Each structure stands twice: as C-alpha cells, then as structure tokens.
Amino acid sequence: MKKWKQKAIVQKTISYLPLSSKINYIFQKFVTKGVNLVDNYFYDRLGHAREHIKAFQNYSDKSIPHACLEIGTGWYPIVPVSFFLIGSDKIFSVDISFLTSKERLQITLQKFVECNNLGQLKNYINFLPDRFHTITKLLNDYDKFSLDEILQRLNITYLIEDARKLSLPDNSIDLVNSNNTFEHIYPDNLIPILKDFIRVVKKKGGVMSHFIDMSDHFAHFDKSINIYNFLQFSDIQWKWIDNSIQPQSRIRVYDYKQIYEDLKIPISEESFREGNLNELKSIRLAKKFKKHQLNEIAISHCHFISRMSSVNY
Ligand SMILES: C[S@@+](CC[C@H](N)C(=O)[O-])C[C@H]1O[C@@H](n2cnc3c(N)ncnc32)[C@H](O)[C@@H]1O
Questions:
Q1: pLDDT (tens digit, 9 = 90+) per residue, 96-109?
Q2: What pLDDT does 32 receive?
Q3: Nearest Cα residue to atom 22 of ligand 1
Q4: CB 196 within 8 A of CB 171
Q5: Is-contact 184 40, C-beta < 8 A?
Q6: Is residue 104 a part of any domain in this protein?
Q7: Percentage of residues in the chain with pLDDT exceeding 70?
Q8: What is the DSSP letter of 92?
Q9: Which pLDDT score is estimated for 205?
Q10: What tens digit of pLDDT does each residue of 70-83 get?
Q11: What gap in Å lies between CA 69 and CA 176, rounded to an integer?
C-alpha cells in the first residue's frame, strides 16, 4: 500500500480519538518525522513574514502593523515572533488548538538568534535591536519564566476559539494574515471566518495577506505521488479519505477568487506558483475539476493581498 494511503488511514483513525492533535504530533514526530523545525521551513515562513510586512507597507498608510492577527499559527510561531521583532504591540494568533509549547517556542526563538548570528535575519526583516535583545534575554533565563510570561513579553496572545466569532473588537486589527492554513478550512467555515476578518480589520489602513498552499499535502510525504493526486477523487470519495486533523478542502484558485468576490474583499495584489501541467495531465481528474482550464487547476500556491480600506463594508 502506498505511504500516503497508510498515513491517511492513521490520521483518519487518530481523528476519532480524544486528544487527537496531541497524538498526531507524536505520530508526526516519531513516524513521519514532519514536526522538527528544519531550516527550510523556518526560512520559508520567515519569507512569508517578510512578504506580509511588505504587503502592509505597500497598502497601508502606516509602516508597522501595531495589531496583527494570524489564523492557524501551528507548532512554531515564526510569523508572530517576526511581527514582535519589527515592533508590533498586539499580536494575536487564533487557532482551533494550542499547538505551540514552551519548548517549541524556545526552539523558534533560538532559530531567530541563529539566523541573526549567520547574518541572515536582516535580509528578511527590519528588526528593532531592543526587541531582539528582549529575545536573547528571555532565552538566557528561559527556565525562570512560564510560557504565559514569555508570550506576554513577546506581545503574543493565543486565542483558542472559533475564528468565525473572534473575541476581538470591530476595526481593531491592522494586518490579518495566514500561512498555509486556508487550504485546511472548507468554505462553509472559511466564508464566516473571512466575514469576521472583515469585521475586525481596520477600515482605514487595514490589510489582509494570505498564503495558500493548494498542493496535495500527502505528496509532501510520499514522493511516489504528485501534488495533484487528490484531484482524481470525487467529493464523496474524498470525504472518506480526508480527516479532521489535517483536512484538505482541495479548493482551487478560481474558488478562492469567487469567495473573495462574493464577500467583496478586494484582491489588490496576487501572486501564484504555476505548478506543473505535465504532472496534472498524468491525473485522471474528477468530474468537478474537468470544467476548468488546466492551467488554472495547476496553480499550486497563491498569495492574496487586500487593501481593506479600498471598499465600504
Ligand atoms: C498546516 S497548519 C499551518 C501552520 C503554519 N501556519 C504554517 O505555516 O505551517 C494549519 C493550521 O491551521 C489551524 N486551523 C485549521 N482550521 C482552523 C480553523 N477553522 N480556525 C483556526 N485555525 C485553524 C490548524 O490547527 C493548524 O495550526
């Protein structure tokens, strides 16, 4: 049996158990070895942070987003720490489960220090020296602090709550962002979440910036399949394969654009990774995908930037 199918079966089984996200972490750590903070991942997400900051500076009248919100931060809060380093004062991370830990936060902070020692950090973000000093000081006395105290010093607040009804006031967030998260949220949840983002983002100077990875995530782990493998299944078949730990909506770029249009969220700037047409052609597409242009289906990653003050809601 192919490796991706074995993983799908294990994740489906875990998804029915209590504490499923903790069990999944252990499974990924010891079996698929997909949870360590490796350089590729760190620099990729640091690159995302750089792009979010650039998007904010291009489409807002301010240079620093004082209040930021990320949905789906995951195990290592690289993007929230980047915002702290550039001077943000209120950094919220909303997720359905609390996936970081004191140890994972320490690993993240150490990686920032290592990156700076290599002379790389300044190539990504224009960090404030006193903010960087706070991080080195925290690391020196790490054991003395609780996780809550460390997060507080980094201006980071975790909101473990339903992102469709955020506990944040209207018009309070300068920059809403996400990284490789939208693809895990089906439209019946994503639409109300986006509506609440519209509510909380500042209508004067507010920006949204979202990176979406539309590739089949099982292909990241099993190199015998390509990133379009999941497009061969009908919705009914996919419902059996997909799991609630790491759901994949299989939404394509044209679906996201339609959702944005329906919600009147402007796309001020968009960028794509074209994907690989030959790989796509090797897949027998399910009916629902066949009605679209191959080059549209092939797009594997996208980044949407929205200047939220350009519309009246
Ligand atoms: C694949 S991880 C991405 C983690 C990280 N942002 C990254 O760049 O690798 C997806 C994250 O989205 C979170 N997530 C999924 N559905 C969500 C929802 N409805 N509301 C909030 N967070 C959600 C998951 O718990 C997880 O932390």
A1: 989 899 999 999 99
A2: 64
A3: 95
A4: no
A5: no
A6: yes
A7: 97
A8: E
A9: 94
A10: 999 999 999 999 99
A11: 5
Domain that holds residue 58: 37-214+251-310
Q: Determine whether the shortest distance from the Cβ of 72 to ligand 1 is under 6 A.
A: yes
Determine, yes or no, domain membership for 223: no
- The C-alpha atoms of residue 191 and residue 264 are separated, in whole angstroms, by 12
Q: How far apart are CA 45 and CA 147, in angstroms?
A: 22
Q: Is 180 in the pocket of ligand 1 (CB under 6 A)?
A: yes
pLDDT beyond 70 at 33? no
**What pLDDT score does 14 carry?**
83
How confident is the model at residue 97, as a pLDDT?
Answer: 87
Q: What is the whole-number distance in angstroms between the Cα of residue 245 and the centre of ligand 1?
A: 10
The domain that holds 294 is classified in CATH as 3.40.50.150
Domain count, the chain: 1
In a domain, 288, yes or no: yes
Q: Is residue 225 part of a domain?
A: no
Among protein residues, the one whose CA lies closest to atom 11 of ligand 1: 72
Tokens of 258: 């339609």
Strand order in the sheet with 269-273: 156-160, 90-95, 67-71, 175-179, 207-213, 301-307, 269-273
* CA nearest to 135, candidates 156, 109, 100: 109
- Report how far apart, in Å, the C-alpha atoms of 199 and of each of 22, 220, 261 are: 32, 35, 17
Residue 72 CB neighbours (<10 A): 19
Q: Which two tokens stand for residue 26?
A: 């252990």
Top mutation candidate among 95, 97, 108 for ligand 1, by most atoms within 8 Å of CB: 95
Contact 121, 113 (CB under 8 A): no
267, amino acid identity: I
Task: State the pLDDT confidence band at 309, using cuts at 50, 70 and 90.
Answer: confident
Model pLDDT, residue 310: 66
